[in-house]
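Design review, sub-item: ligand-bound model
Attendees: FS, YL, KQ
YL presented the inputs for the pyridoxal-5'-phosphate complex:
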Amino acid sequence: MKRATLCVQAGYEPGNGEPRILPIYQSTTYKYDSSAELASLFDLETPGHMYTRISNPTVDCVERKVAALEGGVGAMMTSSGQAASLISVLNIASSGDNFIMMGNLYGGTTNLFLVTMRRMGIEARVVSPEMSDDEILSFFDERTRLFFGETIANPSLAVFDFDRFAPLVHSKGVPLIIDNTFATPILCRPFEHGADIVIHSTTKYMDGHASVVGGMIVDGGTFDWEKGSKYPELTEPDESYHGVVYTKTFGRAAYITKARTQLMRDLGSTPQPIAAFLLNMGLETLDLRIRRHSENAMRVAEYLSTRTDLIKSVSYPGLASSPEHERALKYLDGGLSSGVVSFSMKGGRENAMKFMDSLSLASIVVHVADARTSVLNPASTTHRQLSDEMLINAGIDPGFVRFSVGIEDVEDIIADIEGALSVCR
Ligand SMILES: *Cc1c(COP(=O)(O)O)cnc(C)c1O
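KQ shared the predicted structure:
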């Protein structure tokens, strides 16, 4: 089935006389007729639910839907995107190991990887696309476990160069993990371009209504964990599970099975059944919404590009003038580039704040990627402790505005921008 159909139909198939709409199984536990049945569940011999910290029927259906959309062998929903990033790395890295990350990751991921994970003894090494292949390869050693990047980086909007990085990463015998939050599987399916594991903050376009925080890990089932004997946690007995060997028992689904039976069991970053239900409602319209977000964002980017009187630069991969455009055409569906447009205002922080305060349809929020148009100026919010000079050193223009284009009528969005710009000088 095509992706628009999967959005609506995948994951839940009611039997005769059962509810047509995915029910919310608001239960922490499950009843069994015999202790032998439960024992075989505990031994991972038969599939089934035993406790909602580990799995739940409502959550399970949504996981199946996202696995189908990405073209993976299995998925696990988490309580947030942060939990998905954390578990995706912890599943194959321990204290003393390291991994490689792109320097343009989402700020929350960057903090997690460079501060918190470092305290856990796992070292993230930062690379950038400007480096040569040899330079990038020099960051790998025998304790390097994975490479982590974003399809469309938040907020730089750089488009990941799969054809360059996937072979490079695989030549070192490690998997490529991709955060596909901004593109969603509608605009890009990273597994088709060499990624091995995909993660999502479902809080953004997948939910799409700014109503529920969540995350997802999807296993492409493509990576050969046995080759090179680098991943004993998957290829040798797990003593916390009566010696199960994940690659032997679960084959292509080894990674995602271990993430659930071991890490979700131990860490408990569990989504609530109601969160899965709400996410499923969002997913039903994802194909429609992300196309509309992309079309609207393109129109907004084009309009902003004409306002050279007040706007220094516009960044949007869909613009033919963007350095990301070639990759957008190659990896995103027909160059549809999702809903976030970044731009820099002349007149710095002061003008950016004046512009934002003068908007009426677009709201000022610490969020992106939902149905409502919203706007954020890092210099006056998330990075406000920094002086202009410090911001510039950190690569952030004080007049930088991140504009998340919603699915309203684009004429209204542009009129709102035009009105707010008329107040600026
Ligand atoms: C928001 C975001 C995250 C973190 O997700 P939460 O659901 O907020 O925990 C991770 N990656 C990207 C690209 C994001 O935009």
